[in-house]
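To the structural biology subgroup,

Please find below the input and predicted structure for diphosphoinositol-polyphosphate diphosphatase, which we are adding to the shared reference set this quarter. The sequence is reproduced verbatim from the submission form. If anyone notices a discrepancy with their own records, reply to this email rather than editing the shared folder directly, so we keep one authoritative version.
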Amino acid sequence: MRQEATCSLVLTQDAQHRKNQPPLAEEDDDRDHTDDAMPPPCSILLRQEEGEATAAAAGEGLLVPPLNFAMVDHGVYRSGFPDISNLPFVESLRLRSVLCLCPEPYPEANQEFLRAHGIRLFQFGIDGSKIRYPPPTGTAGYYYGGISTFGPGGTGVFYPGAWVAEPFVNIPEDRIREALKVVLDVANHPVLIHCKRGKHRTGCVVGCLRKLQRWCLTSIFDEYQRFAAAKARVSDLRFMELFDISSLKHLPASFSC
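Predicted structure (tokenized):
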């Protein structure tokens, strides 16, 4: 009897409580209520730890890698041009050398950083600018990969209504070769290879290095495409395909194959 009275009292109190509550808004019956559930204690702890780690990183300063940064091989990295915000990250790589493929004078702030950390700068300037002008009269063309290219005096790509000189088409093979010699010399490692955006000029140097590593062309082109994306250039692919590696010394044992 006492048990029934207790249950009746609880039910009465619960009904009174619901009566005093404001009406609930109508909800979709298909709504997923899992997001409304209280997270388990372990989830709360993980979020708390993540928040503490983020706060600590913010206090110490985040390391921001340069555009298109990636590891090529042991002791060899690639990227776009490092700016001031990237220098703490570059410092963490403990580089011995930087290989720049841009023809412009190296920024003074970057030079000061290299001097302060005893990093040697190698610069093999390769022009990557775009030039637009009408097609030369009487110029013969040939097809490569479904794109019409023209000469003499430079290679270009024919588009409807315009003739465009494709950037980085007259690739100076001697400079690529000299750049590779720097990369192959383990005394220069760790080394960072970079151009402006880490796509075309850097992609060609890395692609030629992959030929030395006996990569197949499909894999070389796939790696190039991942960085160049929609900006991939037929002339770069053609250069890497035809590049002769026979004059370069054998691959150092430190490189993985």
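Summary notes: The beta strands are 70-73, 76-79, 97-100, 120-123, 131-132, 141-144, 147-150, 156-159, 162-165, 191-194. The radius of gyration is 30 Å.

Regards,
Lab coordination
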